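Hi X.,

You mentioned you wanted examples for the new student's onboarding notes, showing what a folding record looks like when two proteins sit in one file. Here is a clean example. The first protein comes first, with its sequence line followed by its structure tokens.
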Amino acid sequence: MFSWLRHAGSILWKRQPIQLTFFVTRKCNARCPFCFYLRSAAAGGAETAIETDSEELSLEEISKLSRSLGPLLWLAFSGGEIFLRKDLVEISRVFYRQNRPAIMLYPSNGLLPELIYERTAQILRDCSNSIVVVKLSLDGVNAAHDTLRRTPGGFDKVMQTYQRLAGLLHEHPNFELGINTVFCSDNQDQMDEIIDFVQGLEHVRTHTISLIRGHLAEPSYQQVDHAKYQQAITRLAANLRSRAAPMYRFRGGRLKAAQDIVQRHLIHRTLLEQKRLAPCYAGKLNLILSENGEVYPCELLTQSLGNVRDYGYDLRKILRTEKAGTALRAIEEQRCYCTHECNMITNILFNPRLYPALAREYLRL
């Protein structure tokens, strides 16, 4: 497997991105009202953007920009529904060969069981030295999931996808199958039920809860009870410590589980204190790429650093511009804060000041 240790130098020097989140498409076959990418207040109801792929980076363009990056620790695909991107397998193969990511993440709404199974199976065959993680979205049990996501029959489709993907676990030791739940105002009272249900899924190795975020068209979903979030994350941590819930299969999985616990506590404290509690490496270790080539330091910051098409598909060239430098300085000077889970990963793992907390959780697992 591609080693995490290749990136140890980034603990001291935040010189180049090692985590890339690539929004490969805006296409989606669900209409979740809390989706910050398709339904954000800033998007102006971009219904046409949801249906078209005319601006999406081509495979050739993706290959060019991939070559401008070094080795990656974490490559996360996002969207939209990523499995609707017809060349997702080929895109994965490009990054695998040129950037050797230790972890490749594929979140999905799970509505296309056969398509998701076929493309995941091919990615696993082609990318055997990376940990391939598929996270299926589950925001309620049975009809509650369908109602919240406005997708009739969605829960049954997710379960079908889960069963199909479970068949790949024995054949591919680099495969991690998980569930992600968006924590929002409409399901916060059902968290115990959701956690119990996921815990009963034999083949799920990890259950993550993502706090709702972004500038939503329907902000009522963000009216969450902080105490209920704390109750949910406390249950997840207790399940891990008691071994009532399974842990990641990959080498280093115990460290990642400890990081998950520290991360959720930091998120809860951020909610309560409304300030940044740890340095943010957005734009330094973390980078966001949109389906049409715009580059951002963070998912929640809407000011683009530039488009790869205007810089010869060289991401590093964009990061050397005055515009990028100004944006990164603003992140530090304004000390903006958020609860974005993906950024928290590097903010914890590459911040030595958090190692005592990380070590305490590691020893408790």
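Then the second protein repeats the pattern, sequence line and then tokens:
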Amino acid sequence: MKRLPIDLAQQKQLDEERMAELVRFTARTLETASPVPFGAMIVNSASGERLVRAVNAVRRENDPSSHAELRTVRKATKKLRTISLRGYSLYSTCEPCPMCMANALWAGLDRVVFGATIADANRHCRQIRISAREVVRRSDMTCIVDGPILRKDCYILFRHPNMLKTFATWNPKA
């Protein structure tokens, strides 16, 4: 049976519910020795069923590519045993950087939904200030980019006292 398209109000409500879940998941790191404000989740675009989620692990894994979005794509493709994530959507507590957005395009994700913006993140740590929408615009691949969704809730992750202490130990902005 083919699923009927949902209206914009229903989509907004679903996006907010999924983002709130992701914020709660990511916030759990704030009371650990390795807090991060960056979390991501991949869901089935039609059913909304969660497939995988992850947080940033750059420092924990000593890997500059271990962004939450890339980690979820890696987990999802392994779980599904395919390189294509058509039929799936990515939620991220922060707008994907150009590396992560390019990966979302290569994976064929239907949609990317983000909370805080790259500008929000750049207040606390270094960023490549190219929007996710600009990466899509300059590509020959397609992906819907929606956001910010629950921006204030996502930005709170960046302003948590433990996160602010951790930012001071990261690459200083100078």
